[in-house]
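Lab notebook, bench 4. Continuing the backlog of folding jobs that were queued last week. Each job is logged with the same field layout so the records can be merged later without manual cleanup. Today's entry covers Putative HNH nuclease YajD, a 116-residue chain. Filled in by technician R.K.

JOB TYPE: sequence-to-structure
TARGET: Putative HNH nuclease YajD
LENGTH: 116
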Amino acid sequence: MSKLRNEYKRHSAKVTRGPRWKALRMQALDRDGWACVQCGTRHWLECDHVLPVKTHPELSYTLSNLQMLCGACHARKTRIEVGHTPLTPKRQQWRDLLREMQRNPHEHKENNHADF
Ligand SMILES: [Zn+2]
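JOB STATUS: finished
OUTPUT FIELD FOLLOWS
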């Protein structure tokens, strides 16, 4: 993990500690229907700040600045924010395929390993 990305984590870690955040995250989960707003999966959900805490600390606890993302979409967004280039199309395709498989209830039994 790069130094820059660690710095992003450190900033949001201040916010994501404590009961205030927990309540807000539940509101965001409810609003977004307990699914990733980008790909719709219900697994591995994380609460993301649309505008990063680092640059917009005043929006840390603003529900409209929060969105539920799965780990994969969240990682992709963070990569772009810290200035990494997104994954190559081929790698992205592979990830999307994996996610599609996870989402298909006929082939894969629903599990509840999501981290709420
Ligand atoms: Zn997603």
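OBSERVATION: Residues 3-103 form one domain.
SIGNED: R.K.
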